[in-house]
């Protein structure tokens, strides 16, 4: 699957990626970190969705990196949503940081507000 995740066609890469996490679990993280920078938006979207299923602080950090650096605001929002539902105990703290005015690079106002709302909801679950 790792070899197929480098295939030329995005549809093939998406399907390979969907098999990586169930098959490899946490060991899929190096591949997911590489694929989160895939040139195809649909592949990146699948990767961001799968990162929400990997219970490691590295997955949360990767999602935070996507929220900070993605060009597309819908991808940034998807990353925030995945952090908001992530089982890691670090997710609330990461959302608070992303929602902060002092985070660098700073998210747009609407996304910072969304991050703070997700952090509050995470606080209610604790």
Verbal overview:
With about 130 residues, the chain is mainly α. Helices cover about 65% and strands about 0% of the residues. It has 7 helices and no strands. The chain is globular. It starts with 9 loop residues before the first helix and ends with a helix.
* Main β-sheet description: none
Shape descriptor reads: globular
Order of SSEs: HHHHHHH
Cα gyration radius (Å): 14 Å
Using DSSP, what is the number of strands?
0
TL;DR of this structure?
Helices cover 67% and strands 0% of the residues. The chain contains seven helices and no strands.
Task: Supply database-style keywords.
126 residues; globular
Write the layout of secondary structure elements.
Elements: H1 10-24, H2 29-35, H3 41-51, H4 57-69, H5 73-84, H6 91-99, H7 109-125
